[in-house]
């Protein structure tokens, strides 16, 4: 959106619309970060005390065959 908005062919009103759309996307991202969880673990909001930083999934019948997914804080990315 920033690249499109900086294009010289857009009016000030077009840029205002891009700014409003960007703000809406940030709000939606925060909403997703607040509500996305797996097994009561917030996957995109690591602000809670003692929050997990990684989820491991066993990929086969072998105990050490794991897929590790690093979690991060998606809140406040603006």
Structural features, described:
The chain contains two helices and four strands; from the N terminus they run ααββββ. A hairpin with a 7-residue loop joins strand 3 and strand 4. It has one domain. The longest helix has 24 residues. The strands form two sheets. A two-stranded antiparallel ribbon has the order 1-2. The chain is elongated and about 60 Å long. With 78 residues, the protein is an alpha+beta fold.
Summed up:
GO terms for molecular function: structural molecule activity. The chain is 37% helix and 18% strand.
Main features:
78 residues; alpha+beta; two-stranded antiparallel ribbon; 4 strands; 18% strand
Topology, please?
Elements: H1 2-6, H2 12-35, E1 37-38, E2 41-42, E3 54-58, E4 66-70
Antiparallel strand pairs: 1-2, 3-4
Helix content: 25-40%
Radius of gyration equals 19 Å
Category by helix and strand content: alpha+beta
Q: State which percent range the strand residues make up.
A: 15-25%
Please indicate the count of domains.
1
Q: Treating each run of at least 4 consecutive H or I residues as one helix, how many helices?
A: 2
Average of pLDDT: 77
């Amino acid at each position: 959106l920033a690249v499109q908005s900086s294009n010289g062919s857009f009016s000030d009103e077009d840029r205002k619309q891009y700014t409003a759309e960007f703000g809406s996307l940030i709000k939606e991202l925060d909403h997703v970060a607040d509500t996305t969880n797996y097994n009561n673990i917030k996957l995109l909001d690591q602000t809670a005390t003692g929050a997990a930083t990684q989820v491991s999934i066993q990929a086969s019948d072998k105990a050490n065959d794991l897929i590790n997914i690093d979690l991060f804080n998606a809140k406040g990315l603006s």
